[in-house]
Specification:
With 266 residues, the protein is of the alpha/beta class. The protein has a single domain (2-259), classed as Alpha-Beta Complex (Spore Coat Polysaccharide Biosynthesis Protein SpsA, Chain A), CATH 3.90.550.10. It is 40% helix and 18% strand. The chain has helices at residues 18-21, 36-46, 79-93, 112-122, 136-142, 175-183, 188-195, 200-204, 210-221, 242-265; strands at 2-6, 30-31, 34-35, 53-56, 69-73, 99-104, 129-135, 151-152, 157-160, 163-167, 225-229. Helix 2 (36-46) packs across helix 4 (112-122) and helix 3 (79-93) crosses helix 6 (175-183).
Length: 266
């Protein structure tokens, strides 16, 4: 499967991460000796499921590298436009492409194993969109101080993931679909607007299940879709705030130290 990595976004003065980025791309903020996005690219490079990568939002001079990168695209000014540009580029390179992996550059803790799991789990069916959700207990066990926002459903509390799968040809559909999907990801009321305000009360009272919510969204958008309940908290551990950045710096520094110790012991 081919992948797009969205690495656009430059924190502006007043943004919580501006002190760390200093006018440069968020994707280039250092984490344990590497740019944030490089951790993501390394996971995709090591994945046995990912063949080609389109990187969006930075150019070749950024220093972000992978032998799988086939194109660097400039940022398009908006997350939706970045995704559409990436999918269109993949279709240009491979007109017969089916699905594509869409990965945010701010989930540096992902590994090749997690990437492979997401691709394999999605491809068990042939839907238009696959959206990863991480149960609250999974996230809080792995990252107890992450302070994520959760959607409370009848059967589960979840937060959204940042590595998802979509049919590439959806790039040729109405961009409003992408706007709705992305803008609703962390806002319960926008999520409710997708499934209809008549179900808002059910959502707030936790009387709608994850499966029911997905079916309502898919029906409204005239798509087929499936929520993937992901066992990897790292897929949803995106960095929006300084405390999350510092958590990832400590976490990935530990990972590097463990790897170095294991290598030395061989």
């Amino acid at each position: 499967m081919d992948a797009i990595v969205t690495a656009g976004g430059v924190p502006q003065p007043g943004d919580p991460l501006y002190a760390y980025s200093q006018g440069k791309s968020k994707a280039l903020i250092d984490i344990a000796g590497k740019p944030m996005a490089q951790w993501v690219l390394d996971a995709l490079t090591e994945s046995s499921r990912v063949e080609n990568i389109v990187l969006i939002g930075v150019d070749q001079g950024s220093g972000l590298t992978s032998p799988k990168i086939r194109a660097y695209l400039p940022g398009q000014g908006h997350m939706v436009n970045n995704i559409l540009a990436g999918l269109n580029k993949l279709m240009e390179m491979n007109p017969g492409i089916g699905h594509a992996l869409i990965v945010s550059s701010d989930i540096p803790a992902i590994t090749a194993e997690m990437v492979d799991w997401v691709v394999d789990e999605a491809m068990r069916t042939n839907d238009d969109i696959y959206y990863n959700v991480i149960p609250r207990h999974v996230m809080e066990k792995r990252f107890p101080n992450s302070r994520r926002s959760y959607t409370h459903l009848k059967d589960v509390e979840v937060c959204g993931g940042d590595m998802n799968v979509a049919r590439a040809s959806l790039a040729q559909s109405d961009a409003e679909i992408w706007d709705k999907l992305i803008e609703s990801r962390k806002n319960v009321f926008k999520q409710a607007s997708l499934i209809g305000f008549d179900t808002l009360l059910l959502l707030l009272l936790r009387q709608i299940t994850l499966d029911q919510a997905v079916k309502k969204v898919a029906r409204k958008l005239k798509l087929t879709g499936r929520a993937i309940v992901c066992p990897y908290a790292e897929v949803g551990m995106d960095i929006d705030k300084p405390h999350q950045l510092e958590m990832m710096r400590a976490d990935l520094a530990r990972r590097q130290a463990e790897l170095a110790n294991a290598t030395a012991a061989q």
